[in-house]
Design brief:
Helices cover about 75% and strands about 5% of the residues. The chain has about 300 residues and is an all-alpha fold. The termini are far apart.
Protein backbone atom coordinates (compact mmCIF):
# COMPACT_ATOMS: atom_id res chain seq x y z
CA UNK A 1 0.00 0.00 0.00
CA UNK A 2 1.33 3.44 -0.91
CA UNK A 3 0.93 6.07 1.81
CA UNK A 4 0.73 9.66 0.61
CA UNK A 5 0.90 12.80 2.69
CA UNK A 6 -2.25 14.90 2.69
CA UNK A 7 -1.94 18.64 1.99
CA UNK A 8 -3.30 19.37 5.48
CA UNK A 9 -0.62 17.28 7.14
CA UNK A 10 2.13 18.84 5.03
CA UNK A 11 0.90 22.33 5.88
CA UNK A 12 0.83 21.45 9.57
CA UNK A 13 4.42 20.19 9.47
CA UNK A 14 5.55 23.27 7.55
CA UNK A 15 3.83 25.56 10.05
CA UNK A 16 5.49 23.69 12.89
CA UNK A 17 8.90 24.02 11.25
CA UNK A 18 8.44 27.76 10.71
CA UNK A 19 7.33 28.38 14.31
CA UNK A 20 10.28 26.40 15.67
CA UNK A 21 12.72 28.18 13.34
CA UNK A 22 11.44 31.61 14.40
CA UNK A 23 11.70 30.67 18.08
CA UNK A 24 15.26 29.40 17.62
CA UNK A 25 16.29 32.51 15.70
CA UNK A 26 14.88 34.88 18.33
CA UNK A 27 16.48 32.91 21.16
CA UNK A 28 19.87 32.81 19.46
CA UNK A 29 19.88 36.50 18.51
CA UNK A 30 18.76 37.58 21.98
CA UNK A 31 21.39 35.43 23.73
CA UNK A 32 24.15 36.48 21.34
CA UNK A 33 23.44 40.20 21.50
CA UNK A 34 22.27 40.68 25.10
CA UNK A 35 24.45 38.31 27.12
CA UNK A 36 28.01 39.11 28.12
CA UNK A 37 30.71 36.85 26.69
CA UNK A 38 30.97 34.94 29.97
CA UNK A 39 27.25 34.29 30.38
CA UNK A 40 26.93 33.55 26.67
CA UNK A 41 29.41 30.71 27.22
CA UNK A 42 26.87 29.06 29.56
CA UNK A 43 24.16 29.37 26.91
CA UNK A 44 26.43 27.60 24.41
CA UNK A 45 27.36 25.00 27.02
CA UNK A 46 23.70 24.04 27.48
CA UNK A 47 23.23 23.71 23.70
CA UNK A 48 26.39 21.59 23.34
CA UNK A 49 25.37 19.29 26.22
CA UNK A 50 21.96 18.75 24.61
CA UNK A 51 23.73 17.90 21.35
CA UNK A 52 26.01 15.54 23.28
CA UNK A 53 22.97 13.71 24.65
CA UNK A 54 21.74 13.20 21.08
CA UNK A 55 25.19 11.99 19.99
CA UNK A 56 24.69 9.04 22.35
CA UNK A 57 22.26 7.62 19.77
CA UNK A 58 25.02 7.73 17.13
CA UNK A 59 27.28 5.78 19.47
CA UNK A 60 24.56 3.23 20.14
CA UNK A 61 24.21 3.94 23.86
CA UNK A 62 20.81 2.79 25.04
CA UNK A 63 21.13 2.75 28.83
CA UNK A 64 20.54 6.02 30.69
CA UNK A 65 23.61 5.40 32.84
CA UNK A 66 25.85 5.09 29.78
CA UNK A 67 24.42 8.28 28.30
CA UNK A 68 24.94 10.17 31.55
CA UNK A 69 28.52 8.90 31.68
CA UNK A 70 29.25 10.25 28.21
CA UNK A 71 27.52 13.53 29.04
CA UNK A 72 29.56 13.83 32.26
CA UNK A 73 32.76 13.27 30.27
CA UNK A 74 32.04 16.19 27.97
CA UNK A 75 30.79 18.37 30.84
CA UNK A 76 33.99 17.78 32.84
CA UNK A 77 36.11 18.65 29.78
CA UNK A 78 34.18 21.88 29.29
CA UNK A 79 34.63 22.74 32.96
CA UNK A 80 38.38 22.22 32.60
CA UNK A 81 38.38 24.44 29.50
CA UNK A 82 37.05 27.36 31.53
CA UNK A 83 40.31 27.30 33.49
CA UNK A 84 42.53 26.29 30.57
CA UNK A 85 41.34 29.15 28.34
CA UNK A 86 40.86 31.75 31.09
CA UNK A 87 37.12 32.16 30.70
CA UNK A 88 35.80 34.21 33.64
CA UNK A 89 33.35 37.06 34.35
CA UNK A 90 36.19 39.60 34.43
CA UNK A 91 38.11 38.37 31.36
CA UNK A 92 38.00 40.62 28.30
CA UNK A 93 39.56 37.96 26.08
CA UNK A 94 40.69 34.35 26.34
CA UNK A 95 43.95 32.56 25.60
CA UNK A 96 44.19 32.77 21.82
CA UNK A 97 47.13 30.38 21.52
CA UNK A 98 45.34 27.62 23.41
CA UNK A 99 42.14 28.30 21.50
CA UNK A 100 44.02 27.95 18.21
CA UNK A 101 45.36 24.53 19.25
CA UNK A 102 41.85 23.23 19.95
CA UNK A 103 40.46 24.75 16.77
CA UNK A 104 43.36 23.24 14.82
CA UNK A 105 42.45 19.81 16.16
CA UNK A 106 38.88 20.47 15.03
CA UNK A 107 40.03 21.40 11.52
CA UNK A 108 42.18 18.25 11.39
CA UNK A 109 39.20 16.12 12.44
CA UNK A 110 37.01 17.52 9.66
CA UNK A 111 39.76 16.89 7.12
CA UNK A 112 39.80 13.26 8.27
CA UNK A 113 35.99 13.21 8.18
CA UNK A 114 36.13 14.21 4.51
CA UNK A 115 38.38 11.23 3.78
CA UNK A 116 36.06 9.03 5.81
CA UNK A 117 33.07 10.13 3.74
CA UNK A 118 34.93 9.57 0.47
CA UNK A 119 35.60 5.97 1.44
CA UNK A 120 32.04 5.21 2.58
CA UNK A 121 30.63 2.56 2.75
CA UNK A 122 33.67 0.40 2.09
CA UNK A 123 35.58 1.78 5.07
CA UNK A 124 32.82 1.33 7.66
CA UNK A 125 34.80 -1.29 9.58
CA UNK A 126 37.55 1.25 10.28
CA UNK A 127 35.32 3.69 12.18
CA UNK A 128 32.15 1.80 13.15
CA UNK A 129 33.06 1.26 16.77
CA UNK A 130 31.44 2.76 19.88
CA UNK A 131 34.67 4.18 21.27
CA UNK A 132 35.62 5.75 17.92
CA UNK A 133 32.20 7.33 17.39
CA UNK A 134 32.29 8.62 20.99
CA UNK A 135 35.67 10.21 20.25
CA UNK A 136 34.20 11.74 17.07
CA UNK A 137 31.58 13.41 19.24
CA UNK A 138 34.18 15.02 21.47
CA UNK A 139 36.26 16.16 18.48
CA UNK A 140 33.12 17.63 16.95
CA UNK A 141 31.48 19.33 19.93
CA UNK A 142 34.46 20.71 21.87
CA UNK A 143 36.03 22.72 18.99
CA UNK A 144 32.57 24.07 18.18
CA UNK A 145 32.09 25.19 21.78
CA UNK A 146 35.53 26.82 21.86
CA UNK A 147 35.12 28.45 18.43
CA UNK A 148 31.76 30.07 19.12
CA UNK A 149 32.90 31.41 22.49
CA UNK A 150 36.10 32.75 20.92
CA UNK A 151 34.05 34.62 18.31
CA UNK A 152 31.90 36.17 21.03
CA UNK A 153 34.96 37.34 22.98
CA UNK A 154 36.48 38.79 19.81
CA UNK A 155 33.30 40.75 19.02
CA UNK A 156 31.18 41.09 22.22
CA UNK A 157 28.24 42.55 20.29
CA UNK A 158 27.87 39.13 18.68
CA UNK A 159 28.38 40.14 15.04
CA UNK A 160 30.87 37.35 14.28
CA UNK A 161 28.71 34.66 15.88
CA UNK A 162 25.63 35.78 13.96
CA UNK A 163 27.64 36.03 10.74
CA UNK A 164 28.76 32.43 11.17
CA UNK A 165 25.20 31.24 11.72
CA UNK A 166 23.81 33.29 8.80
CA UNK A 167 26.49 32.01 6.40
CA UNK A 168 25.69 28.40 7.25
CA UNK A 169 21.95 29.10 6.98
CA UNK A 170 22.48 30.75 3.57
CA UNK A 171 24.40 27.70 2.34
CA UNK A 172 21.61 25.40 3.55
CA UNK A 173 18.79 27.49 2.09
CA UNK A 174 20.52 28.03 -1.25
CA UNK A 175 21.31 24.32 -1.52
CA UNK A 176 17.74 23.34 -0.64
CA UNK A 177 15.92 25.55 -3.14
CA UNK A 178 18.36 25.20 -6.03
CA UNK A 179 18.70 21.46 -5.47
CA UNK A 180 14.95 21.02 -5.27
CA UNK A 181 14.39 23.03 -8.47
CA UNK A 182 17.32 22.02 -10.65
CA UNK A 183 18.93 19.05 -8.91
CA UNK A 184 19.77 16.08 -11.17
CA UNK A 185 23.31 14.96 -10.39
CA UNK A 186 23.50 13.11 -7.08
CA UNK A 187 26.21 14.22 -4.69
CA UNK A 188 26.44 11.21 -2.36
CA UNK A 189 23.64 8.72 -3.10
CA UNK A 190 24.91 6.21 -0.52
CA UNK A 191 24.69 8.79 2.24
CA UNK A 192 22.01 11.32 1.32
CA UNK A 193 20.05 10.51 -1.84
CA UNK A 194 18.36 13.93 -2.00
CA UNK A 195 21.57 15.96 -2.15
CA UNK A 196 22.78 17.08 -5.58
CA UNK A 197 25.72 18.94 -7.04
CA UNK A 198 23.33 21.61 -8.28
CA UNK A 199 22.32 22.17 -4.67
CA UNK A 200 25.97 22.56 -3.67
CA UNK A 201 26.48 25.27 -6.29
CA UNK A 202 23.27 26.99 -5.20
CA UNK A 203 24.48 26.99 -1.61
CA UNK A 204 27.86 28.29 -2.76
CA UNK A 205 26.29 31.23 -4.59
CA UNK A 206 24.04 32.13 -1.63
CA UNK A 207 26.92 31.86 0.83
CA UNK A 208 29.19 34.03 -1.32
CA UNK A 209 26.53 36.76 -1.54
CA UNK A 210 26.11 36.76 2.24
CA UNK A 211 29.89 36.68 2.63
CA UNK A 212 30.26 39.77 0.43
CA UNK A 213 27.61 41.64 2.42
CA UNK A 214 29.01 40.67 5.82
CA UNK A 215 32.60 41.52 4.83
CA UNK A 216 31.45 44.93 3.55
CA UNK A 217 29.63 45.58 6.84
CA UNK A 218 32.59 44.41 8.92
CA UNK A 219 35.02 46.60 6.96
CA UNK A 220 32.86 49.73 7.02
CA UNK A 221 31.35 49.61 10.48
CA UNK A 222 33.37 47.43 12.84
CA UNK A 223 37.03 47.22 11.82
CA UNK A 224 39.12 48.26 8.86
CA UNK A 225 40.31 45.31 6.77
CA UNK A 226 43.27 45.09 4.44
CA UNK A 227 42.87 43.81 0.88
CA UNK A 228 44.48 40.54 1.96
CA UNK A 229 42.05 40.11 4.87
CA UNK A 230 39.07 40.79 2.59
CA UNK A 231 40.32 38.18 0.11
CA UNK A 232 40.76 35.62 2.91
CA UNK A 233 37.24 36.23 4.23
CA UNK A 234 35.72 35.85 0.77
CA UNK A 235 37.60 32.57 0.30
CA UNK A 236 36.31 31.54 3.71
CA UNK A 237 32.75 32.21 2.51
CA UNK A 238 33.34 29.75 -0.33
CA UNK A 239 34.80 27.18 2.04
CA UNK A 240 31.79 27.42 4.35
CA UNK A 241 29.57 25.73 1.76
CA UNK A 242 31.78 22.69 1.36
CA UNK A 243 32.33 22.28 5.09
CA UNK A 244 28.58 22.64 5.62
CA UNK A 245 28.04 19.74 3.21
CA UNK A 246 30.69 17.63 4.96
CA UNK A 247 29.03 18.22 8.33
CA UNK A 248 25.64 17.29 6.92
CA UNK A 249 26.97 14.13 5.27
CA UNK A 250 28.83 12.99 8.39
CA UNK A 251 25.64 13.22 10.41
CA UNK A 252 23.78 11.37 7.66
CA UNK A 253 26.41 8.62 7.77
CA UNK A 254 26.15 8.25 11.55
CA UNK A 255 22.33 8.26 11.45
CA UNK A 256 22.30 5.70 8.67
CA UNK A 257 24.71 3.57 10.68
CA UNK A 258 22.16 3.39 13.52
CA UNK A 259 19.05 3.40 11.27
CA UNK A 260 17.93 6.76 12.65
CA UNK A 261 15.66 9.21 10.86
CA UNK A 262 16.53 12.15 13.12
CA UNK A 263 19.15 12.76 15.78
CA UNK A 264 16.38 13.49 18.28
CA UNK A 265 12.94 14.97 18.76
CA UNK A 266 13.68 18.11 20.77
CA UNK A 267 12.78 20.56 18.00
CA UNK A 268 9.22 20.13 16.65
CA UNK A 269 9.23 19.81 12.86
CA UNK A 270 13.03 19.74 12.71
CA UNK A 271 14.12 16.67 14.65
CA UNK A 272 17.04 17.10 17.02
CA UNK A 273 19.60 19.80 17.67
CA UNK A 274 22.25 17.94 15.67
CA UNK A 275 19.91 17.90 12.67
CA UNK A 276 19.96 21.70 12.72
CA UNK A 277 23.61 22.36 13.55
CA UNK A 278 25.41 19.58 11.64
CA UNK A 279 26.87 22.06 9.15
CA UNK A 280 27.69 24.57 11.88
CA UNK A 281 29.77 21.95 13.68
CA UNK A 282 32.02 21.53 10.64
CA UNK A 283 32.29 25.22 9.78
CA UNK A 284 32.96 26.71 13.22
CA UNK A 285 36.60 25.58 13.79
CA UNK A 286 37.96 26.94 10.49
CA UNK A 287 35.78 30.06 10.68
CA UNK A 288 36.94 30.98 14.20
CA UNK A 289 40.56 30.01 13.49
CA UNK A 290 40.62 32.24 10.40
CA UNK A 291 39.46 35.29 12.35
CA UNK A 292 41.93 34.48 15.10
CA UNK A 293 44.82 34.34 12.61
CA UNK A 294 43.95 37.54 10.72
CA UNK A 295 43.51 39.63 13.85
Amino acid sequence: MVVTKTPGKCNKVLKQRIITAIFLAITLIAATVLLSSFWFSFFITVAVLLACWEWCAFIGLAQTGSKLGYLATLASMIMALYFFLGISPSAEDINGFRVSIILGLGVLFWALAFLMLRGYPGNASSWNDKSKIALMGLLTLIPTWVGIIQLKYMEPLGYLVLTLVILVAAADIGAYFVGRTFGKNKLAPDLSPNKTWEGVWGGLAACLLVGLASTWFLHNYLRSLSAGQIAILLLLSLGVTFLDVIGDLLESMLKRNQSLKDSGALLPGHGGILDRVDGLLAVTPIFALTFLLIE
